[in-house]
Design brief:
α3 packs antiparallel against α4. It contains nine helices and 23 strands. It is α/β, with parallel strands linked by helices. The relative contact order is 0.16. Strands 1, 2, 3, 4, 5, 6, 17, 18, 19, 20 and 23 form an eleven-stranded mixed sheet that branches. Strands 8-15-9-10-11 form a five-stranded parallel sheet, with helices on one face. Strands 12-13-14 form a three-stranded antiparallel sheet, with no helix packed on it.
Amino acid sequence: MTGISDATQTVDTDLLVIGWGKAGKTLAKDLGSRGRRVVLVERDDTFVGGSCINVACVPTKDLIDSAEHRADAEPAAYLRQAIASRDSLVARLRAANRAMLETVEAVTLISGEASFVGPHRVRVRAGDETLEITAEQIVINTGSSPLLPELPGIDGPNVHTSQSIQHIAALPERLAIVGGGFIAMEFASMFAAFGSQVVVLERSPRFGAGLDDDVREAVLAALTDRGVRILTDAAVESIDQTGVNTPAGRVDADAVLVATGRRPETAALNLDAAGITTDERGFIVVDERRPVARSTSDVVYLVVIEEISTCDATARAHSSTERRRESYHDSRSTARSTAISHSLCEEATPHPSGTAAATTRALVSARRLTRRRRGAPVPVRDTAVTERGVQPETTSATMGSDHLELLDGLTTSILMRA
């Protein structure tokens, strides 16, 4: 990936992808291979390939697999070895992803921070240098990042997110995890297997309230068997160097993992300049009344397609053994399908408005699209919005034949890859 070589440049392209996530890199490769001019902009070289291979699906599953095989190894040294193995795997995958696009002649990779200056125009900054890109189609593929609540002590050196804890300097003898969601469960299981004493602090009166009862009971049993303590009605009031204070009492801890949700990475994009509306949390608002969903900009679209994450499959293949409790280890498992946006294949099915697409770094999810005959209502059932980069407004409408044909082709293409 190259920086910006001149102080001011202008580039015109067919497709601009902002952020190197699963959807963006796939679109860039596919359309670049067809001869479409593609520019991909990424502000952080450590996210080449997207969050899945760098900080999420793959590296966490690799750490889990290492933890499962610790046996009688000395915990602290073993964790250091596991982290080194994780980093080696990520480096290989990152290099492979970079090579995947560098070998496509029509694709240009740019390092820098992108922000809209108009519906079809984006300014990219890298230090004092500026590049302006005009594109007929634009993919917003910036994803989300860990959300840290406003709490006394939240910025302490012993406080970690799901990303930073993957490089924790030393194995904590006592780990407190704030939050009781999928990510919290994943790291609770992981660090208990590495040898830490783990306490999960759930603010609700019931742990796993969003899970089916049989699943919740299985998760509780699995975590309890591993020695994980779970406290409910334990909203965190403050954090300090030696632990966490809650209404349920004081919890001593050498390290604190905060896993309380995600925030969209949209603040730097200047979305107003493109006519794109966000909600109060910064999530992009889309009209999800049809599989080709439109944002509040006439030129920004999103296709929501249910798919099992190919990155999770990669992580499982990398593991040397099957993990019998994978469902609660995997915060992005097949239980929560990942939607991939491929709405720029308009070479076969052109959109009348000269569309672009909006997506996030594999964090947009929908349960299932029920497809009916052409022109019939197509309901979208129980669309999930937590930890997503797109906020839906509506749930059903009429889908025309052009949209159905586009969706059919895209679904087939994606499932063949998976």
